[in-house]
Amino acid sequence: MTNHWVDIKNANVIIVMGGNAAEAHPCGFKWVTEAKAHNQATLVVIDPRFTRSASVADLYAPVRTGTDIAFLGGVINYLLSKDRIQHEYVKSYTNASFLVAEGFTFEDGLFSGYDAGGRKYDRSTWAYQMGPDGYALVDETLQHPRCVFQLMKQHFSRYTPEAVSNICGTPRETFLKVCEIIATTSVPDRTLTFLYALGWTQHSTGSQIIRTAAMVQLLLGNIGMAGGGVNALRGHSNIQGLTDLGLLSDLLPGYLTLPREQETDFKAYLDKRSIKPLRPGQMSYWQNYPKFHVSLMKSWYGAAATKENNFCFDWLPKLDKVYDILQVFELMAQGQLNGYFCQGFNPLAAVPNKAKLVKALSKLKYLVVIDPLATETSCFWENHGEYHDVDSAKISTEVLRLPSTCFAEENGSLTNSGRWLQWHYQGARPPGEAKADTEIMAGIFLKIRELYRKEGGPFPDAIANLTWNYQIPAAPSPEELAMEYNGKALEDLTDPKDPTKVILKKGQQLDGFGQLKDDGSTACGCWIYSGAWTEKGNLMARRDNSDPSGLGNTLNWGFAWPANRRVLYNRASCDTTGKPWDPKRKLVYWDGAKWAGADVPDLKPDAAPADGMGPFIMQAEGVGRLFALDKMAEGPFPEHYEPFETPIDTNPLHPKVISNPAARVFRGDADEFGKGQQYPYAATTYRLTEHFHYWTKHTRLSSIMQPEQFVEIGEELAREKGIRGGDKVRVWSHRGSIKAVAVVTKRIRPLKVNGKTVHHVGIPIHWGFKGVARKGYLANVLTPFVGDANTQTPEFKSFLVNLEKA
Amino acid sequence: MSLQSLDITRRSATTTASPGQRQTTEVAKLIDVTKCIGCKACQVACMEWNDTRDDIGENHGVYDNPADLTANSWTVMRYAEVETDRGLEWLIRKDGCMHCAEPGCLKACPAPGAIVQYRNGIVDFQEGNCIGCGYCITGCPFNIPRLSKKDSKVYKCTLCSDRVAVGLEPACVKTCPTGAIVFGSKEDMIRHAEERIVDLKQRGYAKAGLYDPQGVGGTHVMYVLHHADRPEMYCGLPKDPAIGPLVGVWKGAAKPVASLALGMIAVGAFAHYVANGPNEVDEENEKEHKE
Amino acid sequence: MNVTRRRFLKICATGLGSSSVVALGFPVTKAQAEVRAFKLARSSETRNTCPYCSVSCGLIMHSLGDRAKNAESSIFHIEGDPDHPVNRGTLCPKGAGLVDFIHSPNRLKYPEYRAAGSDRWQRISWDEAFARVARWMKDDRDRNFLAKNAAGATVNRWLTTGFLAASASSNEAGYLTHKVIRNLGVLAFDNQARV
Asked: Cα(A112)–Cα(A434) distance, rounded to whole angstroms?
């Protein structure tokens, strides 16, 4: 979230799209009902289904699954053609005025530089025109035909209300009503917030959907504002934290990136990431990359990391490609993996195309599952009849299952969707011999280190020298680990303005990432978390909920990264002179000498407005990007591409380029995509409020509330198929088949799309072959093995099925 | 049993007047159906707090689960898909005891002290005194109480009298994610409802209103409805609930006959319990309760 | 005897005058009204955070006993933390039922091993489990670790074992996991954020 949960109450318009906040995040949704009750806010829900969120909305707009870019592109077209944008914001805080390189084109669904064989782009033309001074060229009148503003206008001019209605199935009048509600927030003192979740990410175009929403918000001047922003409502309690800590194939903690194998030179590695400003006077904060990176290396390798050995740069594994979960299961299915660990993760249920997953897991030599619960993955070799029909005797994978603690049995912090780190405490002992994840990781590591000490082996250096100065080596305490990722001074640190003044003594906890050094005198395990545990103690455990501004920022509750800031880009809540756009919602302001206000200012504290430092300090331009340069796989402007399985078997905008041309599709998986003729119904998977993924089927109370697997279909489709509510139905895709109870509802209506009637089939995901709820089929029996072109998040939200009465 | 209690205003089948000197605040739970997302947190919190667990049932082709109130489920969400002039509306109502000011259950109950009404308005069942006759079920205009198959006693929402007695709000109120359920003095709840109705009318719900039916003397569980003129749309919320006329007439002519019959039931039920364990409710009876 | 109560009531009309049963001999003194004992009166409270979605609602967990040496804490009730700025005491249906997650019959209690081709689990000790995992890993790493690529560049990677990290484990567990796994050279490393 750019903003945070409580801040939703400050919104005037709330758009729930690509998510179902009432269903999946009910307690966060309270701030929506609060905005409605006390801020006269308007709630709009855009979804293929009339959801629980829709049940309390002021306006519901149906949309075909997988067509969100078309819808939002239509909104952009509406705002631009009706001139309903926040002009001063767009001119000063976005790259609308930047000139784009001459070679950049868009024709027939493809941007310049496409390589059809490799399914990827040469992105070199997706760039700015550069001046001789090394800065990008701009035209502040926004009239230059090559400026971003004009190119954007042209790009989205195709997304007329008629085109939107034809692609999305949204009635034209409803679409226009939504546009009008959104446009009311283009004035400086009204804001709109977008609340989204997996309904936007789980598409082959997911990242671009979110980008389109971000563009809408930039045009309306709603980023950085109280009650504004683009807000990802993340799914799991610490998925934000695990992402921040870089537990992904190509990341290091704090969004630092692992080197590619071509990057053999340490200095070049740092320089590439120390991005220089693209406009005069900009902060371009990533220029500090070396400080973050070197401090991480010092944290991991201690004295072994020296200037002379490039702080152990060579010790880091180097990437030949990104090993995302789809890539890994593809390799596993090919027999190229021997071992696999699942720590609190149930991939047999959570990754698409179950048949492929079973095949892949069966090829492993060993599988280690660390979990509090008996997951399906740990039992993938067990036969559970129609729900999971395998022959145990033929599966030679050895499996170890290690019991871990749950939340109630450990101390530690979790990072919520609003970037708050909050500390929690142990309330009881774990059952039986279950151990904390920290102890399990320590146990494994110490044993391996011992083996390498005894037996030797390839490249033991990083293992042998990994800092492990915990009081009890077999059980590092959460407190020690938190202090480690916050970071400390390895030498006395002096004030840069007065070198005689020591601000931190050797060994003291850092106050924040502003104190990090690139010379090895500081250690910090995750720079963005620096400030969480300082000499003042554990700031994540703070419990002062006072809210003097009334905006809900509670700066003394827990700790928010970065630097305890609650609303990102909050400098953009003021005009260029430093005066808040909306005097009623003053997040920050320039007081004549410095930035002050109800939040931690997101700017150099003494950067005078007159100096023109832009609010988007992580970007080299200092402004928000309406044109994404080369950062996205499939183009600098979002474009509507159909899901890989589309019920209309074409793309009305460009029939030759139907689906995302830059999405990675593995050979065998392409053969498993179904066509509209055989599988006429648009299917989508989702969560129910009564359950949490595949966990709560293990809890009795949740299982009482939704005991049995079902699928939802509209009354019209049910009539056609002779299905009544409560009947058993069979649903199948090109990959597999499930049986479930039919819920027949008025809340799913057929849509008119490209001259065709499209029915949706809704498939909640929560059942499986383990648990106290009634046994059911894992819903990923049905789903296709293809992901977003940028993140590889699987396309769980849009695929094709057929169905019949069972 | 605890010594903790609340001031009592009346108890079933008892002529002795309750002490009436102390005046405690009349409380109420307000359920704002227009804010409710039907998440069932109230159902879970109710079961968790009261240490009951219903069966893990089946899906009957709807979201309602458990399908009906039971001796373990003292509140359930009822979902109605209704087409109005505003288009499709998903009207979701939390069903449970209304804590009537003139409680039909209490008036119908023949077992002394099995049903009490506290001064603050809560109508509570004292299962220790319940003889399992089921009169309360018939007496209830909202079809709320449910007979347990396990112990042949009748259960329903207590409005968390154990929590309210120590100054806390009921469990369902506390948990409600969207603030659709609120709790306080009846006076405050009426004021809260009025504010909500103003907001709803501004949003075009011309008939928005408060449900506090006077046929039962008003209730201590009230609803804010978008369509207060048509409460039946909310899964059959009765428009003008009243205690069955016979409860009122009862004390006259039929009394001796009924007293005798009741005595037979009470004694007989006890004998049956000793001999055979708890009663099973027969199918017909069960069905009638659901009507 | 199986009295159809409803039918009976239809005959003699609904409800019964209050004096009736007293007349039949039920003693009034027994009819005291008591509310159920407040079950949290002396329970121990622990602050925690809901492990489900990322709203991260504040929790108060109530456990048996006062944490005296001889009392085993067992969590018997969980409700929302009213001081928490986001949830302000509320919990959704999942959070309100957390106590059944803690005590789920499907919680794992001991390390277990399943041999190739077997159809059952076998309980083992932690020492055995750690030794076995470390052996598997080291054997695989020793055999497949790639110090340099074909071009001769130092790459120090190990691609034949992968690791999927949790999504509800603490930051501290996540940090330690990253530290350990990355330094073995693992690149097939991912977490729930992807899906």
From this structure: 56
A667-805 folds as: Barwin-like endoglucanases (2.40.40)
Q: What tokens appear for A306 in the block?
A: 């020296």
By Cβ distance, the residue of B12, B247, B254 closest to C12 is B254
- CATH number of domain containing C80: 3.30.200.210
SS in 3 state form for A378-411?
A: HHCCCCEHHHECCCHHHCCCEEEEEEECCHHHCC
How buried is residue A173: exposed, middle or buried, by Cβ count under 10 Å (0-12/13-18/19+)? exposed
Pair C165, A242: CB distance under 8 Å:
yes
Pick the CATH number of A6-232 from 3.40.228.10, 1.20.1200.10, 3.30.70.100, 2.130.10.10: 3.40.228.10
State the Cα–Cα distance between residues B98 and B114, nearest whole angstrom.
Answer: 18
Domains A325-455 and A667-805 share a fold: no
Backbone φ and ψ for B8, nearest 5 degrees, come out as -100, 140
| Pairing mode, strands A595-597 and A756-758 | unpaired
Interface of C with B in 83-112 (CB under 8 A): 87, 89-93, 95-97, 99-100
Residues of chain B with Cβ-Cβ distance to C101 below 8 Å are none
Q: What Rg do the C-alpha atoms of chain A give, in angstroms?
A: 27
- Min Cα separation B206/chain A (Å): 14
- Find which of C14, C19, C83, C106 to mutate to test the B interface (most B CBs within 10 Å of its CB): C14
Give the domain extent around C56.
44-102
Give a yes or no: residue C15 inside a domain.
no
The whole-number pLDDT of residue B15 equals: 86
* Pair A721, A805: CB distance under 8 Å: yes
Q: Could you give the ipTM of this predicted complex? A: 0.97
Contacts (Cβ under 8 Å, ≥6 apart) of B195: none
Query: Do the Cβ atoms of A689 and B39 come within 8 Å?
Result: yes
Q: Would you list the domain boundaries of chain A?
A: 6-232, 245-319+477-539, 325-455, 667-805
C30 touches chain B (CB under 8 A): yes
> Encoding tokens for residue A786?
């293809």
Q: How confident is the model at residue B4 (pLDDT cuts 50, 70, 90)?
A: low
Low-confidence ranges of chain A (pLDDT < 70): none
Whether the pLDDT of residue C13 is over 70: the answer is: no
User: What domains sit in chain B, N to C, each tagged with a CATH number?
Assistant: 8-231+241-246 (3.30.70.20)
The answer to whether C91 and C79 have CB atoms below 8 angstroms apart is yes
CB contact under 8 A, B61 and A702: no
Q: How confident is the model at residue B19 (pLDDT cuts 50, 70, 90)?
A: confident
Report residue C118 as tokens: 């077997």
- Is there a domain that residue C64 lies in? yes
Nearest to A246 by CA among A415, A469, A403, A3: A415
Asked whether residue C160 is assigned to any structural domain, the reply reads yes
Structure tokens at B192: 């809260």
Question: Do the Cβ atoms of A52 and B38 come within 8 Å?
Answer: yes
Whether residue C4 is predicted with pLDDT greater than 70 in this model: the reply is no
Ordered DSSP codes for A738-779 = EEEEEEEETTS--EEETTEEE-EEEEE----SSSSSPP---G
In the CATH hierarchy, which fold is given to the domain comprising A325-455?
A: Rossmann fold (3.40.50)
The total number of structural domains in chain C stands at: 2
Give the strand order in the sheet containing C44-49: C44-49, C58-63, C75-80
The pLDDT, as a whole number, for residue C31 is 43
Confidence of residue B250 (pLDDT cuts 50, 70, 90): very low
Amino acid at B269: A
Find residues 64-93 of chain C whose CB sits inside 8 Å of chain A: 72-75, 80, 83-88, 90-93
Collect all residues with Cβ–Cβ distance below 8 Å to B238 and sequence separation of at least 6: B141, B142, B213, B231, B232
For A726, the 3-state DSSP assignment is coil
